[in-house]
Amino acid sequence: MRDPATALIIPSYPGAQLRRISNVGRDRLAPAIHTAMQVASALVRTLGVNSSTVQLPPSDGIAWRQEIQHASAAIKLDDMLVDLWNRGIPVVPLTQLPVPSFQGMVCIVENRPVILVCYKHDEPGRIAFLISHEVGHIVAGDCTADHPVVDEEDEVADNTAMELAAERFATRVLVGGDAIPQVNADSYRDLATKAIQIEKTSGSDAGTVIFGWARRTLDYTAATMAAKALYRASGARRLMSEQFASRVDMSLATESDRNLLRCVMEGS
Questions:
Q1: For residue range 153-211, what is the model confidence (pLDDT) as tens digits?
Q2: Where are the domains of the chain?
Q3: Single pTM value for the model
């Protein structure tokens, strides 16, 4: 029997690469990182022999954009999710994590990249940029089994070479070029109108244009209202949960792994 007086020590994950961190220390993020790592491990065990061989996307964002099957000119979140799962790279929407948590994390479990999303927002375009950013870390070789990459907040600037490269990769995937088209907008309605026009004429995702504008102006309130005006302010968690549910057979999981995977399924 375990001695109930023995203190439970949460691993500190000294190798974790903390990006876009504001005022949260490594020790405070450790419980969230540990939980996410255990969920990722449970998922990989559950996939087992039914999982496909991992096929990484190309290291160039535009090349990956060209490989993603999509019906419209712009790459949508569901297009990206289908492609990643088909490549053997799970995207895991976490509904429960210890606080403080993070927005996105990529780790390697048994040689398989796993992307974990605990994002407080639900805009599909915003989530698509986050996920493609994490894919950028994967294809650049930024993360290893001992060095997960944890992105705490997308509104925090991080101008390190690694983060700038991941941002460039995500931009190339979603807009097909090195820079998000810039717009000058007088109101959220003006922003929405111009963003959807850009999407129709160039194939750049309107959500990426809107939140690129927000990162430049720091006016995330107007950006969220613009996304609502285009009926693109919600649905990301549903899309991620649907993909997870269709790809993962929970009956194959052990009881302990099912308990861990409830961090994904509950609330979805």
A1: 666 666 789 889 999 999 999 999 999 999 999 999 999 999 999 999 999 999 999 99
A2: 17-177+235-265, 180-233
A3: 0.89
- Cβ contacts of residue 146 below 8 Å, gap of 6+? 15
Per DSSP, the residues of the chain read: ---TTSPP-----TT-EEES-SS--HHHHHHHHHHHHHHHHHHHHHHGGGSPPP-PPPSSHHHHHHHS--SSSSPPHHHHHHHHHHTT--EEE-S--PSS--SEEEEEETTEEEEEE--S---HHHHHHHHHHHHHHHHTT--BTTB-EEE--TTS---SHHHHHHHHHHHHHHHSSSSPPP---SSHHHHHHHHHHHHHHH---HHHHHHHHHHHH--HHHHHHHHHHTT-SS-HHHHHHHHHHHH--GGGS-HHHHHHHHHHHTT-
**Residue type at 133 in one-letter notation:** H
Cα-trace Rg, the chain = 19
Both structure tokens of 74: 């712009």
